[in-house]
Amino acid sequence: MSDVVSVLAGFVRTLRAAGVAADHERARGFLEALENLDAGERHDVYWAGRLTLCSGPDDLPRYDRCFAAYFDGRDSPRPLTPAVTVTRYVASPGGDEVAGETTAAATASTLEVLRSRDVAKLTPEERAEINRLLALMRTTRETRVSRRLAPARHGSLDPRRTVREAMRRGGEPARLRFRDRRRKPRRVVLLIDVSGSMRAYADTLLRLAHAVVRSAPRATEVFSAGTRLTRLTAELRVRDAARAMDQVSAAIPDWSGGTRLGEELREFLKGPDARGAIVVIASDGWERGDPSLLGAQMERLGRMAHRVIWVNPHKGDPAYRPLTGGMRAALPHVDDLVAGHSLAAYEELAGLLAGRRAGHA
Q1: DSSP class of residue 313?
Q2: Rounded to an integer, what distance in angstroms lies between the CA atom of residue 268 and that of residue 346?
Q3: Which residues of the chain have a pLDDT value below 50?
Q4: What is the pTM of this model?
Q5: CB 208 within 8 A of CB 293
Q6: CATH superfamily label, 188-353
Q7: Are residues 353 and 142 in contact, defined by beta-carbon separation less than 8 angstroms?
Q8: How many angstroms separate the CA atoms of 123 and 109, rounded?
């Protein structure tokens, strides 16, 4: 069964490379549809994919070409090197855009290179592609044990449900019922620096925050940090990324200003959002205020939060050293210091939110 899933996942990747917006939700729908059909039947696979992976009429010709190339006309799906030809605008070495025909495999290679590119150095076309990939991103979340109990296969005996089951059977012996603690997604709070020194990265980081909010709307809070703290959670709960970013732009009053992280953290810690949460601070650490105030508030944050992650776009540079006053004050109280300059760095951050451990800052 795992081989079949691997083949079907490869087909979904081929569709994405050809320009079909087959995101993770559509892919999950595709696999769920095939649970009720026969994944070994070409006809069933074709119609399950056509109905779940295509979002509009423009996708249908691409889907048919990808399907024919990938499955090669056989009854049983098998992975092939897809020979799908798609037209994309790519940048020439001289910087001019040229219309070129590339195979899906070449496109996948291009996307792999793009994953590691610094978003501050992208062309408009490359930035649009990164934005599209962020809009498709789905993040998982580290879980925590809830205080509430729920029915479970194992755990402590649930006497009430066990007795109720026996009464339904007229007092005859019944199967024992158990209960255990529920597991819930751990809350994540993101504070994103929108000051002038973060101008090249703030938009992409906010799009990443949009993906995190969509994955767990009730367990995520987002704030912008500049000269003041602004809650952006409601704006980022809008499903469409473009609309969400329009609302965020209108809500932030201090784009490209200075940074007073110490004062804003002090204001943030007056509320309950940090307690027990994974707190992500995305900033380059250029603090206009007193670094000692930032250090004191970071110390408080470290005691309240479950985990503190600092995302610094400049860490992607091998020559980077955290020498600014803000970074030096904050680092002793940070659990993980990660880069925030590329799609690959954002995927690493997503892994940390899912509970994967990294080296200490």
Answers
A1: G
A2: 24
A3: 73-106, 359-361
A4: 0.65
A5: no
A6: von Willebrand factor, type A domain (3.40.50.410)
A7: yes
A8: 18
